[in-house]
Amino acid sequence: MATPDTSNAHREATPPEGGLNGLTRRLGPGLITGAADDDPSGIATYSQAGSQFRFGLVWTLLLTTPLMIGIQMLSARIGWATGTGLAANIARTCPRWLTLVLVGLLVVANTINIAADVGAMAEAARLLTGGPHMPYVVGFGTACVLGQIFFSYERSVRVLKWLTLALFAYVAVVLSVQVPWRDVTVQTLTPWAHYPKGVPLSAYASMVVAVLGTTISPYLFFWQASQEVEDNNRRPGAAQLRTHPEYAAEHLLRIKLDTYVGMVFSNVIALCIVIATAVTLNLNGVTNIQTSSQAAQALRPVAGEFAFALFALGIVGTGLLAVPVLAGSAAYAVSEVFGWRRGLSRGFRSARGFYLIIVAATGIGTAMSVFELDPIRALIWSAMVNGVISVPIMVAMMWIGQSRRLMGPHTISRRHRVLGWTATLVMALAVIFMLLTQ
After folding, report:
1. Is the dihedral of CA 127, 130, 131, 135 positive or negative?
2. Which of 29-43, 123-137, 196-210 has the lowest mean pLDDT?
């Protein structure tokens, strides 16, 4: 029997790459996922870390970077190797009731997070241009829903990629202030020697848990896996070529590059936010920042109008990036569990359930912001729900990644297993501590 010729399909499934244009083609799900992690809620967490503990928590970002890379690479690999999203794979390995509980809690946490992010965007816009709070809330919520419904998948990806540039605002903030890099290095390497006076140990530990929970979040797992599935579906013959050694090696390398760049970029931006707030707010006695817009406003008298404007614009840009990711990840998870048609590459009429979840999550989150939901309470509840579901989801992901039945020849390596289980263990310890101290 003749062996089928896969060379033409291979060429069609793999877009031409080379130079800067080739690099931008390789970057997609990982870059967008990493950038979405620095949403307004995350900015608030990093601002609080910098303003309260100066450089004493920079080490947490160094710790979480490899763990974040490992777990997100696993998410992407699962989506690419199985051709289905993370929720569908969890449903194959876990009891139905557990899958429904995890997905249900994910939707709740994402909706609360959307509420906090929409509210933060509205407040940042109000600080920049003036006017009442409510029109900004409604405007941003409506824009996020309409963009996902009416933009094609390709256009959505392009817009989300461009929105990642908003994060460079925080690089510019750091460049606009004087940073004592020697102090940054010393306090990062010896944080115990620079513990702030009068701050209880529980507050320090809680902030460590908050930073860890911000960088490793369940909605990022679901989003990146589903985007790999969408990306594969756009490539003719991709499903048949997954067992082709050359094709598999090429695309697993792309996933690795995309994820490395996205997660390192994410934590570099987080580092810039911590440093910027440490050298401006902390040194001027501002140590109690509860929202990202408060951080922007507090920067104005100590760092000037330019730094304030950049910080506020960054909040708006990252919010416009993160809200579609939060709503989209919830829609993918629900649709996969119930077997609905799904995907941003489909129109509203052919995937109504999928888009209605997006509308519902964004709409409810926006409504919560209209009624001025307490942002700190929202973040606490979102962090607790995410913490509760992250560990079982990560355990399920590790099982899936090691399953030849699901992954075929693309099971994860021993080194990746060590990194993944380490991330799971660290997250489990963080959740246990969080639950004991609440």
Report:
1. negative
2. 196-210
